[in-house]
Amino acid sequence: MELSRLIARTFGLHWLTNIQYRMYEGEPVLMDVNTRPADGLHRLCRCGLNAPWAAMRLALDVDPGNLTPDFLGANYAVVAGARTLRPVARPQQRTDSPAGAVSL
């Protein structure tokens, strides 16, 4: 968390920012810094942290309260490789001209 704070301060990021790490040989490695909320932001509510509300309070110069989750939420599966999907029928291209079609 402290490394994320340092990155945010260094680059002047004051709002909801997405800073991502990946563990490599037991150490966090910086992957990405986005100046937008993470697409999984809604998952934080599963562990008791309302980040959008905390950001609003910070924007209003109000103490956001405790930003440490009270508990860990449900686990999510991450698929790190290709997976076979079931085939899906695709619509076929029309070969006839529909009524009223203009020919170019």
How confident overall, as mean pLDDT?
A: 78
Overall geometry comes to elongated
Helical residues, percent: 10-25%
**Low-confidence parts lasting 5 or more residues at pLDDT below 50?**
none
> Which sheet architecture does the biggest sheet show?
2 strands, antiparallel
The main sheet orders its strands as 1-2
Roughly how many Å apart are the termini? 61 Å
Organism: Streptomyces yanii
Pfam family, one: ATPgrasp_Ter
Protein name: ATP-grasp domain-containing protein
Which labels suit this protein?
104 residues, alpha+beta, two-stranded antiparallel ribbon, 2 strands, ATP-grasp domain-containing protein
Task: Describe what is shown at a glance.
The chain is of the alpha+beta class.
Protein topology:
Layout: H1 2-11, E1 18-24, E2 27-34, H2 51-59
Antiparallel strand pairs: 1-2
Organism: Streptomyces yanii
Pfam family, one: ATPgrasp_Ter
Protein name: ATP-grasp domain-containing protein
Describe what this molecule looks like in 3D.
The structure is a single chain. This protein is α+β, with helices and mostly antiparallel strands and 104 residues long. It has a domain at 2-59. The protein is built from 2 helices and 2 strands. Strands 1-2 form a two-stranded antiparallel ribbon. It is elongated. The model has no long low-confidence stretch (mean pLDDT 78). It comes from Streptomyces yanii. Pfam families: ATPgrasp_Ter. This is ATP-grasp domain-containing protein.
